Amino acid sequence: MAKLDGKVALVTGASKGIGAAIAKALAAQGAAVVVAYASSQEAAEAVVSSIRTANGKAVAAAGDVTQAAEAVELVGTAIKEFGQLDILVNNSGVYAFAPIEEITEEDFHHQFNINVLGVLLVTQAAVPHLGKGASIINIGSSTTALTPPMTAVYSGTKGAVDAITGVLARELGPRGIRVNAINPGYTETEGTHNAGITGSDMEKSLVTLTPLGRAGEPGDIADIAVFLASDDARWLTGERLVASGGLR
User: How many structural domains comprise the chain?
Assistant: First the structure.
């Protein structure tokens, strides 16, 4: 029997990168998955197709996590298609780096709206449907410990996610709902390729500083998400698991 048989998961930002890997990994362990995306329907449908080809269950759903009504619709898709919701992975996120002199109001609100408000709105929509044993997994970042230069806004958003994780663990614990965060270190994704980080001196420096000697892969994070979603993690809540290959 797979670890997540009979469970239903909603994964935001699941059309690519870490989100796509998490959606596939949850499905491989028996969960039916709503692959939520903001803009790339083609990429989301490709994730769904991959899951179905492996005999899993999945549907794609479009939604802007910064809009309360659309967050409700994303959760509604899980209920409509699969009848319940047991696992929520708040993975939607964006990043942009700049020195303090170049931070703009627009950039601040863009990152905080998606990375922080989105977590709150989707969780708010999901909670009425979550029962005892449910798992909420927030995707943070190891930048909250590293605090690298030029990440004041991004690190600020992920620091907020850390705090939200702790607060909601206490708030929802009495209902039997667990809330944890995974804080990845440098992880090679489509985003790092598009941003020119992959293959750059910056990547080489990060890998050099990583005790395990390589960049992270989306699958490294996905396996931890499966653990947190499963009953194996039944005694964990309010935790922030730094998945960075030892990079501190």
Answer: 1
Token reading at 10? 């909603």
CATH code where residue 77 lies: 3.40.50.720
Residue 2, in any domain of the structure: no
Cβ neighbours of 101 (radius 10 Å): 5
Q: Token match 């798992």: residue?
A: 135
Task: Give 46-64 pLDDT, tens digit per residue.
Answer: 999 999 999 999 999 999 9
- Supply the residues annotated as catalytic: 154
Q: Write the pLDDT tens digit of every residue in 99-108.
A: 999 999 999 9
> Which two three-digit tokens encode residue 200?
């750059």
* Phi (first) and psi of residue 189, to 5 degrees: -140, 180
For residue 33, give the nearest of 70, 80, 87 by alpha carbon. Answer: 87
d(CA 117, CA 168): 14
